[in-house]
Amino acid sequence: MNRRKFVTNTASSGAGLMLGSLLAGASYKQKPSFDGGGPRRNFMQEVLKYRKIDTHAHADENQYKTEVNLDFADRLGISKLMISNFIRPFSEGTPDDFRSKNNFIIKCMKAHPDRFIGTVALNPAFKKESLEEIDRCRDAGMTGLGELYNQVKIDDPLYYPIIEKCIDLNWNIMMHSPVGYSRVKLYPAEPKNISLPEDFASIAKRYPEALFQFAHIGGGIDWEYACKVLKESPNVFIEVSGSNNAAGMIDFALKCVGEDRLVFGCDYSFYQGVGHLFSANLTDAQRKKIFFENIAKRLKKAGVYVN
Ligand SMILES: [Zn+2]
Questions:
Q1: Could you tell me the distance, in angstroms and rounded to a whole number, from the CA of residue 19 to the centre of ligand 1?
Q2: What's the pLDDT score for residue 19?
Q3: Residue 61 to residues 79, 104, 289: CA-CA distances in angstroms?
Q4: From ligand 1's centre to the CA of 235, what distance in Å?
Q5: What is the pTM of this model?
Q6: 170-205: buried (b, 16+ CB within 10 Å) or exposed (e) per residue?
Q7: Domain-by-domain residue ranges, the chain?
Q8: Tens digit of each residue's pLDDT (9 = 90 or more) over 187-207
Q9: To 10 degrees, the CA torsion angle through 19, 22, 28, 29?
Q10: Which residues have CB atoms below 5 A from the ion given as ligand 1?
Q11: Where does the signal peptide begin and end (predicted)?
Q12: 183 has pLDDT over 60
């Protein structure tokens, strides 16, 4: 979850808003219709030609509705969404809480097995229950952890047994990144145990075999700083979702960590998520990697094959 809706000079504003207006008339499970030819139609054809896996999606009963997820995904050509029901900031994250959140995800996966890949919420402060939850959710078809939140920092020793289990399973570990760190003052609502880029770099070094995903550089963090800190962490994906994508963000991230370490996500900001990858100066091959191939390769390691 990225929790701030900045109004800023955004790379997404061009392509994102254009997508919004192009798709406004399209309805669920319909291909967008166009009012003629020309550049508008060509742009949507360009958008729809890329296979896409949204590596950062949410589902719950209130805020992140299944039908809304699928509506956007259908319009934008997103074939799969990696959904989670994260433990909310400032909540204790008891085993009962995360089990019921994961149960909701399992329900969504059962309803739409061709669209949703479920990822697991847990709280390492409850070690035994969290390790058991990984087994339970894996048996139910879930893959990977995410979105992990602020209950425990990613480099806290409480995470070690969890990460070690994920290494055995080749599971992706996706965790929230903070809002507003360093370039502007840390957003006051960010809880104190939020994981900073340095924490990701440190745990990635301790466990080079583990597969991390640093969430939403468009969510409000100082993305230049985050990319620089994570430059030498080859096992950390930089995920580019978020609602406030400043101009040049993707281009900078690409230059910093390379095309094999960037992954597409929306975090419920669908137009921005897709739009800014078209605003960025990317080659066709780079877009394919970021939209689909990089995460598909990681999922394959865990035994999940997406075509
Ligand atoms: Zn988040």
A1: 23
A2: 66
A3: 22, 8, 32
A4: 19
A5: 0.89
A6: bbbbbbbbbbbbeeeebeeebeeebbbbebbbbbbe
A7: 11-24+38-301
A8: 677 777 889 899 999 999 999
A9: -90
A10: 1, 176, 215
A11: 1-26
A12: no
> Cα of 152 to ligand 1 centre, how many Å?
14
Bridge-partner residues for 173, per DSSP?
145, 212
Give 234-265 pLDDT, tens digit per residue: 999 999 999 877 889 999 999 999 999 999 99
State the distance from the centre of ligand 1 to the C-alpha of 163, rounded, in angstroms.
19
Tokens describing residue 264: 């597409």
C-alpha span between 51 and 166 (Å, rounded): 27
**C-alpha 212 to ligand 1 mean position (Å):** 14
How does strand 53-58 pair with strand 80-84?
A: parallel
Query: For residue 170, is pLDDT > 60?
Result: yes
Helices within the chain (DSSP H only): 11-23, 38-48, 66-76, 95-111, 127-139, 160-169, 197-206, 223-229, 249-257, 270-279, 284-288, 294-301
Average pLDDT, the chain: 88
At position 202, the amino acid (one-letter code) is S
For 11-24+38-301, give the CATH class.
alpha beta
Cα 283 to ligand 1 centroid, rounded to whole Å: 28
Give the residue-averaged pLDDT of 181-189: 60
Of 258, 260, 256, 246, residue with least CA distance to 216: 246
Residue 114 CA, ligand 1 centroid: distance in Å: 25
Nearest-angstrom CA–CA distance, 228 and 224: 6
**Pairing state of beta strands 116-118 and 80-84?**
parallel
Instruction: Give residue 220 CA to ligand 1 midpoint distance, Å.
Output: 10
54: CA distance to ligand 1 center in Å?
A: 14
Residue 123: which of 131, 115, 114 has the closest Cα? 131
